[in-house]
Structure formats: structure tokens, C-alpha cells
Amino acid sequence: MMREQSEQLLPGCPPDAIRVCAEVTRRHANTFYFGSRFLDASRRAAVWAVYAACRRGDDVVDEPAAGTADQRRDGLEDWWRNVEAAYAGRPANDPVWIALAWAVATYPIPLHAFEELYQGLRMDLDGAMPATLADLELYCRRVGGVIGFMVTPICGYRGGEETLACALRLGQAMQLTNVLRDVGEDLALDRVYLPADYLARHNVRRAALERGEITPEYRALVQELVAIARAWYCEARPGIAYLEGPARLAIAVAARAYEGILAELERNDYDNLSRRAFVTSRRKVALVPATLWQLYTSRPPSQAPVVARRCLPQSVLLLLRGTVMTQRDVD
């Protein structure tokens, strides 16, 4: 995959380091990886580098191998120092940090976005579970929304702060989708991200969640949060039109695939305690033509041909590859 496109990478891009980041992204964020394949080689490489760097921080917080609480806090501080070193052009001798240093030197990825992510990861370490929807919204901003601030400058965009606000909202919608998908997995880590006031209002107790009870009250709670997630996707959607060229298709496909997890959760009768909602690889490929058509028809007539000319060849290529794509049902 990297051999096929190495000639298209910008000068200075470290292909071996990017290959490592690509594999991290493919393994841990299949939907994100799928959408990134519509970008040109250099933007795709930068997106993979950003994801792999973010994943390092997430692993410090979530992986059992990260050690005790104190060791995890030390690990998170090390992660933040590595981010700062990459921005200073002095990355650690590690492929992820080498790739990030190249990405931030090539594209205007703001350091403050990584700083907010650091704050969000500290919330996890501190055990700060959301008491209200506003708390959950802040958490989704810090660990998900800010990814929009990182990726949008890589894609290129018009529209200034309004486009960035949409990117933030899309990241929050995706993170809320993660929360709703992973309730059972988070319980195993002694975490509950469902807002405490929503749990109380629906008379849902943590003990019942730990027993895996999917009650009518719990279904109503999840249904209400699913509606909020969908509203956030709707708020984010207008910003996609202001991304440059194929990035519109890349982000639109990733957004539709991720939003599709909510429909799968509904098909599972809101059981996110013992089942994991996912969108299959075949279904993701099937989303491409409809997404392309939506982009084509939603653009002003003078710009629609540009969308087709820039995006159609890549979508056809991906559809042809679809028959041999892995059918791993992840993310």
C-alpha cells in the first residue's frame, strides 16, 4: 500500500514511520482508516501520523500494560513531552513521533488541539465521569472534537472559524457514538460515561448495568442520547462542503460510516452491554456511491463538476478494491 504511493509523498516524509502509523490506524480505527483512503498520499500520511500519536496517549490511559495509576500519570506526562518535542522538531527516536514531527512541520496542525486532548486524557485518569450532558459534551470535545482541529488543516478548508466549529462538532458526534457503542467495555474499565443526571432521570442504576440488564428505562436513556448524537452529526454536516477536493468525500464517508454505528445499535435493541455495534467493511464500501452523489447534488451547479472530477476516480478505485478488502468487522 505504501509502496504503491510513495512517489506521491511530499519531500521529507518518512515512509517507514508512516507505514507504522498506517498500521496503527488500520488496526484500531478501521472507519477512520477507510475514510482516509480518499485523501492524497501526503494528507493521508499526515492523518495517520496524527491518529497514531493520539492513540499513544489513549493507550497510556486504557491499556492494562500501562501499569498503576501513578505509572499511567507518568506515562501521560511522557506522552505530552513527546508531543512538544515533535512540534519543536526534535522527535524521540520512535516512528510515531518521527511521523508526527513531519506532519506538524508540513501542515498547520495546532498544538492547542493536542493540549486539549491531554486535558481530556487527564479526565480519564482522574476518574472524572460526567455528571451532566454538559460534562459529557466537554469530555467529547477534549478527546474527540479536537481531532477535527487536527485533521481539518491537513485536509485544507475554507470558511474560517465556522468550518472549524463544524469539524469540532463532528468529532464530538463521533466520540459520543463511541461512548454509546462501548458502554459494556467501559464498565470493564470501571468507567461510566453516561451522564449521571440522565441515569437518575431514567431510573437506571450502575448495578443493573453491571448485571447486563437492558431494561425499557435503559433503552429510553440510550435512545435519547442517540438522538443527541444524530443532532450533532447534522450540525457538523454543512462544514464538509468547505473542505478541499477529495477531503470532502473522505470526511463525508467516514462520518456516514460512523453515524451508521447508531443504526446498528438500534438494530441490536440498544444492547451495548454485551454486544458491540459495528458497520461491516462491505457496508462501508456501499456507502461510497450515495455519499458521492450527495456531495455532487448538494454543491452549487458551477462547482458540482469539480466534485465529480476530483472525487469520482478515487471512489471508483476504492469500489474496485472493495471485493478484496478485509471483512474485519471492527469500528
UniProtKB/TrEMBL annotation:
Which InterPro entries does this one have?
Isoprenoid_synthase_dom_sf (IPR008949), Squ/phyt_synthse (IPR002060), Trans_IPPS_bact-type (IPR044843), Trans_IPPS_HH (IPR033904)
Its pathway is: Carotenoid biosynthesis; phytoene biosynthesis
Keyword annotations for this protein, in alphabetical order, are: Carotenoid biosynthesis, Transferase
Gene Ontology MF term list = geranylgeranyl diphosphate synthase activity; squalene synthase [NAD(P)H] activity
| EC numbers for this chain | 2.5.1.32
Keyword Nucleotide-binding listed? The answer is no
Q: Which Gene3D superfamilies match?
A: Farnesyl Diphosphate Synthase (1.10.600.10)
Q: Which Pfam families match?
A: SQS_PSY (PF00494)
Among CDD domains, the record links this protein to: Trans_IPPS_HH
This protein's cofactor list reads: ATP
Q: What's one GO BP annotation on this UniProt entry?
A: carotenoid biosynthetic process
Q: Which family does it belong to?
A: Belongs to the phytoene/squalene synthase family.
Q: What is this protein called?
A: Phytoene synthase
**Native source species:** uncultured Chloroflexia bacterium
Query: What lineage is this protein's organism placed in?
Result: Bacteria, Bacillati, Chloroflexota, Chloroflexia, environmental samples
